[in-house]
Amino acid sequence: MSHNRRRLSQVAAGTGAVALLVAGCGGARVGASTGPGAGGAAAGNLRCGQINLAMNDWVGYTADGAVYSYVAEHSMGCTVKQIPLAEQVSWQGFSTGQVDLILENWGHADLAKKYITQQKVAVDLGANGNIGQIGWFVPPWMVTKYPGILDWKNLNKYASLFKTSESGGQGELLDGDPSYVTNDAALVKNLHLNYKVVVGGSEAALITSFRQAQTHKTPLLAYFYSPQWFLSEVDLKKVSLPKYTPGCDANLKTITCDYPTDQLNKVAATAFATKNPAGFLLAKAFNWTNQDQDVVAKYIAEDKMTPAAAAAKWVKANRTIVNNWLLGIPGAKPL
Amino acid sequence: MSAGALVSGLSVRKIRSRWVWLILAAAWLALYLAFHGTSTLPLSASSTTSVQNNLNSFNNNISNGRNSNPVFLYGVNYVQVGMTHFVSFLQSLISQPGFGRPAPLIGWLGVIAIVGFVSWLTAGWKYAVLGVVGFYILGLQGLWQESMDTLALTIAAVLIAVVIGVPLGIWIGLHDRAQHIVLPVLGFLQTMPSFVYLAPLTLLFLIGNASATIATLIFAIPPVIRLTDHGIRAVAEPTIEASDSLGSTTWQKLVKVLLPMSRRTIVLGINQTMMAALSMVTIAALISAPGLGQVVIDALQTLDVGTAFNGGLAIVVMAIVLDRTTSAVGERSQQVGGRHLLGPQARRLAFGAGAVVTLWAVVESAMYVWANTFPSSPTIGPAIVAGASNASNWVQSTFSGITVGLRNDVTIAFLNPLQSMLTNAPFWLVILGLCAIAMIIGNARVAIVTLISLLLIVGTGVWQDAMQTLAMTIVATVLTLIIGIAVGVWMGRNRQVDRFIRPILDAFQVMPAFVYLVPFLALFGASRFTAIIAAMAFAIPVVVKVVADGIHGVPAPAIEAATAAGSSTWQLITRVQLPLATRSLALAANQGLIYVLSMVVVGGMVGAGALGYDVYSGFVQAPLFGKGLAAGLAIVLLGVVLDHISQSAANRIDPSRH
Amino acid sequence: MSGSMTPPTARLAPDGRAGDLEAPDDEGLLRVRDLWKVFGKRAAEIQGSQDLRALSRRELIDQTGCTAAVRDVSFDVAVGEVFVIMGLSGSGKSTLVRCLTRLIEPTGGSIEFDQSDLLQVDHKQLREVRRRQVSMVFQQFGLLPHRSVVSNVAYGLEIRGAGKAERVARAHEMIELVGLSGYENSFPHQLSGGMQQRVGLARALAVDPKMMLFDEPFSALDPLIRRDMQAEVIRLHHEMGKTMVFVTHDLSEALKLGDRILIMRDGEAIQLGTGDELVGAPADDYVRDFVRDVPRQDVLTLRWLAQPAKPGEDLGGLALSQHTLVRDAIRPVLESSSRVRVMDKDRLVGLVGREEILAILTSDQK
């Protein structure tokens, strides 16, 4: 017995020695400073740690997140943790410390009231430069064939065109991901439209449907939005609903008006500013146009580039915009 | 009539008379024609009822009181923080940066070495090879980190499940009264579609790892409790008596007799728990659990069949490694005193060498990048993604006419009429019909359970959605049973076929439910039919297995006698094998219903609407939270009704008669 | 052969039961008195109620839902005695033997073992009794499948806290004793049934108990192996002199092993006596049925056949002890010209001649 034990301890000692010996020779060590910024925290520079970035499920947002992450990592040595979350769920993350930043927020007055005004766990970081517009769209071929289809008043006339296996006797209005902002069910009801809202599942499903509808000249009425790279591939036509006036969408029970044109904005956790000033300042400065976003989104969705590669490509081509963001962030290296 | 279809599928034999059914159906139809379109309790997608609004404000109260309410301050929050830290700890060991390092403590080389070494010790060298190769494939697929996240979460849930489940199983194994309380709870947990409790859990434990772990725990813990209980109870009475007669204390008896003798069964329980945990961890991606599930969900968002397949394949690979290794541990614990290839001296030496290599690999992977981060080449990931995408594109373009046609035919011929009947009938008429069926197939107790559950569904305010879900469930179950019984009979009659098909079924079963959604979504578009097909893919393996085992279990003498009497194959199947396997068929129907329901609900994410959509949208849209909760409740209640009715059908068929 | 024989000195069971309870000598190791075991919700009421006690087993079930497995059983076992409890299945014999160390908790009565009442001791003391004083061998062996032979045999010593060296040494000793040397490191599933029961025997012997209980230990074995094992028990009893309580449903086994035999039916003790007493003077038809097929010459002794001397009969013939088995007396009696004298030491018990012997032999042909 004791003999065995001695053997074992010898083995263990030997093992350790071998391990050290082998470990001694060669290769890049984990944690050795290889990336930029990691070692460059000179006096006065802001150190950048981990940023918890909410990632919502549409390609435009993926583009936002990719570019922000690329810049934060390569200019300031931050670690960005991308957390895939539905848009409204992301807000919950502010109160629990799970989320530091949302880069593209579509309105959500109720959530802003709850988390910014009441709980004071989030702050508005201002516009991200994108203009958001939600609406109902049809493929362009329909506009010439069915005059007046872009006016909501004529939708009932064309309802039978949009019948599918899912909508029964009514026309189908195809919606996006269940998590997206939508008033469609209420609008259909309040405008007395003979339509049924069918939820398609995702942005990709919407795009596939539109592409097929345009190619095969099949009818389709669906929820869509800009900024959106796909609009440059197929120029979808928006159906005009009764005009939006401020406050007309306050009550879902009575709503009868179109979606507003939103200045999309950035929202951050209140603690983000102190926890990670560099990441916070970059988020505050982050601002680009719909065209910019569409370019990156197309790289990702259409050209199948990884988000990081797409971001790198765009940043290389748009150094001035990016370096403009970095002005005034101590320690940020221009790219 | 929905119920008629349901019942004929169950092939209940003791139905007193055909006339009862005919009269019932006629009466029901007459009432339907008189009253249809009234009392249908509609509720549009964005509307809510006052009950649902109350649930909503309940949600708000909870989220506002998270840091003041004593229940949270002294209970829930501790659990949440504890779980989160536990999972983070495991993640920083193998998958995520941690311990102040930019990379996990143990890199791929170390993990693979540990997997190999541990499976060698516990299961044998073959399994060590399987483990090493399997995990290396995960890396080659380009999914190392995701796989390790999934593994970390699975391990966390399984560890907690074992720590709670084994003692609980022992306790109920030793105490009948405790068993009578615990087993029904476990049965209920197992019939509850996992999709349903994600949202309520995030209400308590927030989104993220804590909720994911707890959801996984709830889903995965029943097998280990059940099998521990079973193992303890299966220990031979003489052995226990012998131990008592020699003066064992209770503790000695437990440690020296009961546990060692039930070890194999307990390990089997842990194995099943592990498989369940793995599939649930993937679904928990919906509440932002990291890992392979996230890969699949993202692929679902972008309709990327290739990536989804790659992710699903990784899950299957991991499942195979974990499953085979833990089963081997179980089998090994049985064959005590087995032969060893090497003598004790050589074994000790081999063990030492293995330990040295493993330790070296771990240290190396902790210190050096090459052994820590899985190299980006060689890789097979892109090839798999491209291959699967191409295959799917080919299928889509080749069969798009057929698939759309199939979808439309089934939808128009079966689904729409059934759904419109259920949704247009007054709610009381549907309740009346279902209660009558429950009464005839089962008994008064089943009818009362049915009545109460259905009334509660009315109370949740999502009656119409529940009827839509019911319609989809019935159509999918009937189709599932038709295919399942056909294949099951084939397998049950032919061992060769069985040997060939069974592994495929096993692979289908470990594949997490919503991996199926992606290709079917691509093929059939956003529709209820997609949900039905996915539900069938999910449920058919179970049904096939139950039916095959039932057919195979038909006593050989009965078949010999029938063959000797000159029966044709068809007569043999319809007159002897199926009737003698009736109980298995009823069980298959029961399992089929439960599996279908749980998947039809997930289909709400891809255009199937109904309760599943309510749950999912409640989860992602703050104003609909209450409605989602109510819909979740309705799903559970629907499950209770379907389970009770189909169980009672199975129980009516007395196995002792055969 | 229908009527009982009436040996001159037989201690008859039915009436003389009380007198029969005492062990052959005064060194009683185990004294069981008024032992009851009733299963059922109202078990506790039965023993105290004269009315209920009087009911038959069937009536008791009908009226109270309770089953009396052991009813009012009393007996003594002497040091070194092999005491057999015999009955058909369901007679309560296995329950009775389990009650002796409270593996089944008796409903009432007393069990005095080695001067202490086992029904009064607490669980700790009871465990000590089981660990050191009384051990048991089971029909289904009850071996631990995950342990080797040596570890199974050492199990009793292990749980009472003996050191490893001590228990391994003792286990090896026992394994040798039961003839299993060479199988120390085998596992139960690698052994035949007979060998497994040898392990069970060694395990029971290893704790060096004062008394050993056997619950139909050889019923599960082949007839040939059963005979070997019976011989083994007899050998061990001779070598070690352990007191044994042995339950069986096999009369020939009972007769072979038992110094005295207790016959049970429906939980009740029907008759207690030596083998020749049971065969020679069955207490009732039940016992008579039981012993019907026993070869009488193998069981009965000459005292059961001895007849008073006829007036003027020749008392000069061969003298045999009254304990001589009939079997062994056949030849001398048949060869003897006069009737053989049957002696209790120096006292003449009676005479046995051809007639008596032939009566016994022919009665067996039935």
UniProtKB/TrEMBL annotation, chain A:
Top-level taxon of the source organism: Bacteria
Domain ABC-type glycine betaine transport system substrate-binding: residue ranges: 50-316
Organism, as annotated: Leekyejoonella antrihumi
One protein family per Pfam: OpuAC
One GO CC annotation: ATP-binding cassette (ABC) transporter complex
The protein's name in its UniProt record: Glycine/betaine ABC transporter substrate-binding protein
Family matches, as InterPro entries: ABC_Gly_betaine_transp_sub-bd, TAT_signal
GO molecular function, one term: transmembrane transporter activity
From TrEMBL, chain B:
Domain (ABC transmembrane type-1): residue spans on this chain: 147-326, 466-646
Keyword Membrane set for record: yes
Membrane spanning residue stretches: 102-121, 127-144, 151-174, 194-221, 266-287, 299-322, 349-371, 425-441, 470-492, 504-523, 593-612, 624-642
GO biological process: choline transport; glycine betaine transport
InterPro entries (alphabetical): MetI-like, MetI-like_sf
Subcellular location: Cell membrane; Membrane
Keywords: Cell membrane, Membrane, Transmembrane, Transmembrane helix, Transport
Similarity comment: family membership: Belongs to the binding-protein-dependent transport system permease family.
Lineage: Bacteria, Bacillati, Actinomycetota, Actinomycetes, Micrococcales
Domain of life: Bacteria
Gene source species: Leekyejoonella antrihumi
Single GO term (MF): carnitine transmembrane transporter activity
GO cellular component: ATP-binding cassette (ABC) transporter complex
Keyword flag Membrane: yes
Name the record gives this protein: ABC transporter permease subunit
Gene3D superfamilies listed in its UniProt record: MetI-like
Membrane topology according to the record: Multi-pass membrane protein
